[in-house]
Design brief:
By secondary structure, the chain is of the alpha/beta class. It has 13 helices and five strands.
Length: about 280
């Protein structure tokens, strides 16, 4: 399993904040408030300041996707040297319609930029290796993520590969039991903790299929099951959950995979796209 790229500490903290325990929120707040001084701190000092165990701080670092406290400090030092502008603005009842619209766009832009910056070449290369060699690709997601799975199927059909997506949870699990070694299973889950998606991942692994996750959480039950994970980053606001902004980021990741596949399977994709366009053209007046 390829680990999440260990960088962008503040974005990771903000995107996961509402899912932290009370002690984890204490550590998160401490890091955000002292980000510039953190390079000089020791794990013992933080534990003493917060009156918690050093092991709690260490586990927090691991949850964010770092090997330990020192790795988090190195990443944070790089972040403070080259800070990312914070576009986030809180929506208030006093905002007019245009102001709310502008803030939503800024939140989406922030989610896209943060998500782009945490991608690693190693991970993208591995994902593309699986997809290019796949005989069939199955996309799975529940709720809003199910819409993303449908969009992925809609795109990949144009490449000539056999692509499937199902909304019904029973059909999802049934098809997962029929996956084979040449198949690739792409599971889209914001939290990475959806029971239906975990069942699908287990079935896919049992049958030898390659498994890919698209999720917002680096340390989740799903990422422990799959072969490789792609991550989104998004921040929650009072009127908009982080899952809505991360959906935009996940959609962009899917677009990237589609274009990468089209480039690598150029001739196949061009033939398939031509057939699709000719067929769809008959639907127009």
């Amino acid at each position: 399993m390829i680990e999440a790229p260990a960088k962008h500490v503040i974005s990771r903290i903000r995107s996961s904040y509402n899912h932290f325990s009370e002690k984890e929120k204490l550590i998160a707040d401490y890091i955000i408030e002292n980000r510039e001084e953190m390079v000089h701190y020791t794990i013992n000092q933080i534990a003493d300041d917060l009156t918690i165990a050093e092991a709690t701080v260490f586990r927090f670092c691991k949850r964010l996707g770092f090997k330990g406290f020192q790795a988090l400090k190195i990443a944070l030092a790089s972040e403070t040297t080259n800070p990312i502008e914070d576009f986030h603005e809180t929506i208030t009842p006093e905002d007019n319609d245009l102001e709310i619209t502008e803030k939503i766009f800024q939140a989406n832009i922030r989610a896209l930029e943060s998500t782009r910056e945490i991608q690693s070449r190693e991970t993208i290369d591995k994902v593309m290796e699986y997809l290019v060699e796949a005989k069939r690709i199955f996309f799975y997601g529940g709720g809003g993520s199910g819409v993303l799975a449908q969009d992925a199927q809609h795109k990949f059909i144009r490449t000539g590969v056999e692509a499937h997506a199902y909304q019904d949870s029973h059909l999802q699990l049934m098809t997962a039991t029929q996956l084979q070694e040449k198949d690739v299973c792409v599971i889209i889950s914001h939290t990475g903790a959806n029971k239906d998606m975990l069942d699908i991942a287990e079935e896919a692994k049992k049958n030898g299929a390659k498994t890919i996750a698209i999720t917002n959480f680096a340390k989740s039950p799903l990422t422990k099951l799959v072969d490789v994970s792609l991550y989104t980053v998004a921040q929650e606001t009072e009127y908009r959950s982080e899952s809505l902004a991360s959906r935009i980021a996940a959609l962009s990741l899917i677009d990237s995979l589609f274009v990468n596949y089209s480039v690598k399977r150029k001739e196949q994709s061009q033939k398939a796209t031509k057939k699709v366009r000719e067929a769809i053209s008959r639907k127009r007046m």
